[in-house]
């Protein structure tokens, strides 16, 4: 006997379900299938999973319904999770000198109907030149003219296929990575410490921090100065934007300097706000920070292990409040815990969209919930974990032998599933190691330090057959 419920209350009930449950509900009968396939429900799921979904998404993709888009894009995202080591092509790419070897994706990372055809990275290929490389082919696709001063910092905005650099003279330049000359320039009076390009609610911007503790916000594409605010008496050491760039987290260079979170709109709309809106997070001995994916207002902080104080985690929520005509931001400590029983100190950390904290010690990969309950442990001794990459889909670690282990977050649990290992294709010495990981839908890149020689990139790309 079929169960018939009024459509309105049933739709309300279905709005609380995840994608997997909606697909199961659709199997009940024709009426439930129609309701569970509603664009209203699936668009909500799409916007929760991919913040940049908008009304133009389906037209761009040529997809008929939001449900079809969700299924297609999810399948696309999990290509690396379905892969095996033999499904990757391997290339080594030369890079620049020392820390200037950092590379960034410049190929589009937005929503596409076809799987991203190729991964392209931008990097400082010598001290005074910028270049782009096709990862799968291992070939250079563009190089800038030689610059009058060495390039110190690099960031990219893949959605617009542009790069931004800062040189030793504090000159900021915007590149489209097609023309040999920069599209726009601007100069600061103080040496720059950090650089980041993002899409804000008000359009693309560049954030620059200097050694005097000032934060500059510049408009793309003309690099016009929007605002400048002094954050700290010391240089700004780190900057982390929330998933939709509603908040920007900043930390000064010295441990005793408290961390700050700014409301991004107050930095961009100076005519609407008399002063930048910010709050201080009371958290001592800060070491790492990570915004919860797909959740705009939550950030997790990790402290260093400074005896007798063990490593501590603090989870904070940000909330805007209006008092009269003034907007303020209030932070709330949601949870905290310490690792009392671990001799080894965590070096790296990240957070899943289910608020699971993953951290790495030299010999273990550990998972905790926000109250400190240990959920899972992966042991690596006698190998040593060097770096950790965490995103909403994957966790990737590198070992001291150059290998990379790829894990996937389980869709319907809090745990990790180990997928495969990408073995190093060459013998590494004690002075050769991967110090940074990059990852997109179809490639994984390790930036390798080859002391005393220049750095290089170890690039793995999925084959076309598996992508589709």
From TrEMBL:
SMART domains: FBOX. Pfam families: F-box-like. SUPFAM superfamilies: F-box domain (SSF81383), WD40 repeat-like (SSF50978). Pathway: Protein modification; protein ubiquitination. The keyword Transport does not apply. The keyword RNA-binding does not apply. Keywords: Ubl conjugation pathway. One of its GO terms (cellular component) is cytoplasm. InterPro entries: F-box-like_dom_sf, F-box_dom, F-box_SCF_Substrate_Recog, WD40/YVTN_repeat-like_dom_sf, WD40_repeat_dom_sf. Residues 1-45 form the F-box domain. This is F-box/WD repeat-containing protein 15-like.
